[in-house]
Amino acid sequence: MSKLPFFTKAQIDNICKDYKTPFYLYDEKGIREGIRRLQNAFSWADFKEYFAVKACPNPYLIRMMIEEGCGVDCSSMTELMMAEALGLKGEQIMFSSNVTPADDFVKARELDVIINLDDITHIDFLEKNGGLPETLCMRFNPGGDFCIGNTIMGNPGDAKYGMTKTQIFEAVEILMKKGVKHFGLHAFLASNMIENDYYASLAAILFKLAVEINEKLGADISFVNLSGGVGIPYKPDDKPVDLEYVGKTVKKAYNEIIVPSKLKKISIKSELGRYITGPHGILVTKAIHKKDIYKNYVGVDACAANLMRPAMYGSYHHITVMGKENEAPMKMYDITGGLCENNDKFAIDRMLPEIENGDILAIHDAGAHGFAMGYNYNGKLRSAELLLREDGSVKLIRRAETPADYFATFNFDGAEIKL
Ligand SMILES: *Cc1c(COP(=O)(O)O)cnc(C)c1O
Question: Is the whole-model pTM more than 0.90?
Fold first, then answer.
């Protein structure tokens, strides 16, 4: 039941002497070990993880991932620029975008990255904006519901991404005529899946499609990209995904579908975001107000502008009151930020130990789609990001925004706001 942060009360008290709350703290050891576990599960394959930059776009963290042998998956111009700044190019970068602006395709071609085409109409668009490469990945949308056994896991039929099966065949045929030599297949069918059979079910769909395209069109399918979607245990009772099992079941599908086919072998890629950084980032915030009206509220110095998942999706994020880890959760609170929005709540009706002003709260599993989804509503500023290194030291990997950053976009035509 208990879910504890990757730091102690003494450690966080020390860190709070040097850095003002709120801030994000990431765990180097956890990130590195998670990547190794993933690579180990797929050691039987020609496998590469492309970290989904959008989940946590901090170059210091991404540099660690590159050291561990990962590439990156970008979805926009600035993410491509970050990858370039990190010294990446070519096959180290996947570009899985949708509704792609022309400039982004031009940049992607300049860096010679692997482009994952979201739509059949993008063939012409890419040809005009950057030109066609030798290798292209196709994003597949099988439509309907995505089921594992009798359970509906996602609704690809309602999703804006990817191409229909007919379109994929048509696209590959057109592209072969235009000189594209190698193809990859990609699909993202469900998000935050802690169901152990997700990746193998998805892999089987893509492996079968690869064999069918190869048989009918003679196209060289050189890889499948299983994309992201592997979930993490947000709730204390959630079971983490068993990666060894995932590796084994994907291998079984590979041995049954790819090995006996004419393709014989293909490589496997993933674009995990949440799995890589999610559990290894914590939003650290301080209780600054208590308010008892019709309910009991604790107001903290972070708000939905720092972590919008609870407000946007109603997501559960576990909260530890530092120093009270062993106290019974005796009191029911709403933990709120200070936005003028009633959905700015990190927890609703949560049983926690009695909280006093000044207590430090650890909001767990904020390392992916956390800081990255931050915004400036109510004039709130983005927080700092810190890295807890393997040797126990702490490094500032992104400073907190200041009012000058907030006003920076007004500084044009000499009409500078004097701060
Ligand atoms: C968001 C996204 C990912 C990463 O998803 P996670 O749920 O964080 O693993 C990977 N690929 C694509 C195309 C995405 O849009």
Answer: yes
